[in-house]
């Protein structure tokens, strides 16, 4: 699969996105605690370089959608400043909008139009045609072609998202904002969607994408962890994981939940969580060598009737890091 | 088995020419945590809607909480709890009001409602937010409350449709703690999820593909049977036998 490189995408002297101290508050309905509503975005600063595939990783309500709406000029910030492609988002929105591709979190295509009709509509809004932009959308369009006459409403979740991506690309944007494109999409379709983003990245397109799925972080060049309107860290996925900062152990035991409850009572436990078919354990002792912790945990489990448990060191993931950075938060 | 919580036999649902659920048969034991997996469009939601008495089967039969789905669907509805990712609580009401409302709907006495409200709020650690509108709570808190509300009438079975979708990783794990607590108290749990790590937390899982159950068993047994390292890998293999070019 190939996508042509864009002359307009050669990097100018400014980063693709520059955000400084960006802030957004929303008023709340009656009976809310506190004053001045909720802070959806709390003085967020970051930079995205040209050609990067940059991910915002965080749960629902973290502020991802607010941030994206600010960046594509659909909301006005209460404080701070943001430029996209060198254009300030509040004052230069007219120049900015034609150059941005935006896929909203909620499916926002026309359900009663067919795949083909939706695509043709979005092309015509931006004064172009499917034929003229075919090279740009080809990798995605080939997957949609078998369903070209199907109403958008009748597509599966994964196919709907591919169509929305195609519509966001059809005017050949210089930067792409994808707000939770894989939420509610099954594990297989999610994988396929990220494969497509990989293809777009190779064409040089700057892409900013948000997701609540921690495992998708590894598909990005860099990620920002976001929670309660604040950035918890920005780095490459491997450095985010590596910054975990404590020895991490994988505990494997058939009676998992009982072992988990037992480990929570262990005098040296710092944290223990289920992670797929294992448990991830960290120790409260800052300076104990890993081998010592492994032996101690084994001994503890053996003494509590979990004779078959296995304990071994493990490399932390982005999800471990996210949990560590949100522990103790409300 | 007579005391199984769910017993589905050749359960089928057709919409016109399309067979959404195609003769599925399975049993869920009392107190079991059963993961009901499948790709988008595989038929999970249709199957659940039949099992909770909201959709008439086109064929087959099922007993849910000891009641026949075809002839006793009202009794089925009273014996189960249901929580979905989208709808669960009245957002303008407070946690306390939501619990009381659902307690009333399920016909609990005033004393029972009062007692369970206090129990639940204490167990969730919600004493400080008991009287503020649900809409101002973080999603993870709302989902924990929604789960408790689904259990307010002490149903034999609770159906959870993507309960942790979009929830942060820490709260997701706390939520599974609630699921295990309910199961160890004897409540049967049928849960759907797109997080494949959560599939590993279930006692048994089934994976639906195109309306049929393509695999069913304990996560360990399935991984052995299909020679895969994770349920994620198995899911990909079953859902896309031939990956697109």
Considering the chains and any ligands shown, give keywords for the structure.
heterodimer; A: 330 residues; Rossmann fold; Alpha-Beta Plaits; 2 domains; four-stranded antiparallel sheet; 25% strand; globular; disordered N terminus; B: 245 residues; alpha/beta; six-stranded mixed sheet; 9 helices; 10 strands
What count of helical segments of chain B does DSSP give?
9
* CATH architecture assignment name of one domain in chain B: 3-Layer(aba) Sandwich
**Largest interface: chains, residues each:** A-B, 44 and 45 residues
CATH topology of one domain in chain B: Rossmann fold
State the helicity of chain A in percent bands.
25-40%
Shape of chain B: globular
Explain this structure.
The complex is a heterodimer of chains A (330) and B (245). Chain A has 10 helices and 14 strands. With 330 residues, chain A is an alpha/beta fold. Chain A has 2 domains: 236 residues, Rossmann fold (3-Layer(aba) Sandwich), CATH 3.40.50; 66 residues, Alpha-Beta Plaits. In chain A, the strands form 3 sheets. Chain A has a 6-stranded mixed sheet, with helices on both faces. In chain A, β12 and β13 form a beta hairpin. In chain A, α4 packs antiparallel against α5. Chain A is globular, with a radius of gyration of 23 Å. The N terminus of chain A is likely disordered. Chain B has 245 residues and is an alpha/beta fold. Chain B has a domain of 155 residues: P-loop containing nucleotide triphosphate hydrolases (Rossmann fold, 3-Layer(aba) Sandwich), CATH 3.40.50. In chain B, strands 6-7-8-3-9-10 form a 6-stranded mixed sheet, with helices on both faces. A 4-stranded antiparallel sheet of chain B has the order 2-1-4-5, with helices on one face. In chain B, α6 links the parallel β7 and β8. The N and C termini of chain B lie far apart (45 Å). Chains A and B meet through α6, β12 and α10 of A and α6 and α9 of B.
């Amino acid at each position: 699969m190939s996508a042509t490189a864009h002359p307009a995408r050669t990097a100018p002297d400014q980063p693709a996105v520059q955000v400084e101290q960006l802030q957004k508050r929303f008023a709340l309905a009656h009976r809310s605690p506190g004053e001045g509503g909720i802070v959806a975005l709390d003085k967020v600063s970051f930079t995205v370089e040209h050609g990067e595939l940059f991910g915002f990783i965080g749960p629902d309500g973290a502020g991802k959608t607010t941030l994206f709406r600010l960046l594509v000029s659909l909301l006005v910030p209460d404080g701070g400043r943001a430029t996209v492609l060198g254009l300030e988002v509040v004052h230069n929105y007219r120049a900015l909008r034609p150059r941005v591709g935006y896929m909203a979190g909620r499916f926002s295509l026309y359900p009663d139009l067919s795949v083909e009709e939706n695509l043709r509509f979005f092309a015509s809004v931006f004064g172009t045609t499917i034929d003229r932009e075919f090279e740009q959308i080809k990798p995605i369009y080939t997957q949609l072609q078998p369903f070209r006459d199907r109403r958008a409403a009748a597509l599966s979740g994964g196919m709907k998202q591919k169509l929305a991506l195609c519509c966001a690309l059809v005017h050949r944007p210089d930067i792409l904002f994808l707000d939770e494109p894989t939420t509610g999409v099954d594990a297989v379709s999610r994988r396929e969607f990220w494969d497509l983003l990989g293809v777009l990245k190779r064409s040089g397109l700057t892409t900013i994408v948000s997701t609540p799925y921690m495992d998708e972080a590894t598909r990005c060049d860099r990620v920002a962890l976001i929670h309660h309107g604040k950035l918890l860290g920005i780095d490459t996925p491997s450095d985010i994981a590596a910054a975990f900062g404590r020895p991490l152990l994988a505990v494997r035991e058939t009676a998992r939940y009982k072992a988990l409850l037992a480990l929570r009572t262990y005098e040296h436990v710092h944290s223990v969580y289920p992670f797929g078919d294992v448990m991830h354990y960290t120790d409260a002792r800052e300076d104990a060598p890993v081998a010592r912790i492994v032996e101690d945990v084994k001994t503890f489990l053996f003494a509590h009737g979990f004779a078959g448990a296995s304990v071994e060191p493990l490399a932390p993931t982005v999800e471990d890091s996210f949990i560590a950075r949100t522990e103790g938060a409300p | 088995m007579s005391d199984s919580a769910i017993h589905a036999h050749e359960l089928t649902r057709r919409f016109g020419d399309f067979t959404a659920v195609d003769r599925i048969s399975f049993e869920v034991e009392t107190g079991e945590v059963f993961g009901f997996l499948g790709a988008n469009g595989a038929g999970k939601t249709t199957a659940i809607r039949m099992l909770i008495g909201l959709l008439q089967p086109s064929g087959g039969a099922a007993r849910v909480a000891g009641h026949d789905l075809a002839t006793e669907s009202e009794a089925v509805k009273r014996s189960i709890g249901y929580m979905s990712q989208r709808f669960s609580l009245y957002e303008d009401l407070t946690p306390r009001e939501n619990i009381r409302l659902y307690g009333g709907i399920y016909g609990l006495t005033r004393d029972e409602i009062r007692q369970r409200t206090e129990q639940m709020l204490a167990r969730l650690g919600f004493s400080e937010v008991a009287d503020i509108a649900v809409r101002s709570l973080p999603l993870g808190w709302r989902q924990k409350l929604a789960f408790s509300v689904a259990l307010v009438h002490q149903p034999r079975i609770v159906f959870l449709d993507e309960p942790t979708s979009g929830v942060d990783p820490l709260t997701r794990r706390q939520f599974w703690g609630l699921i295990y607590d309910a199961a160890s108290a004897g409540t049967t749990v049928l849960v759907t999820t797109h997080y494949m790590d959560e599939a590993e937390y279930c006692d048994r899982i089934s994976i639906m593909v195109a309306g049929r159950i393509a695999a069913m068993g304990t996560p360990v047994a399935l991984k052995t049977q299909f020679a895969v390292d994770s349920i994620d890998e198995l899911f990909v293999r079953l859902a896309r036998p031939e990956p697109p070019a």
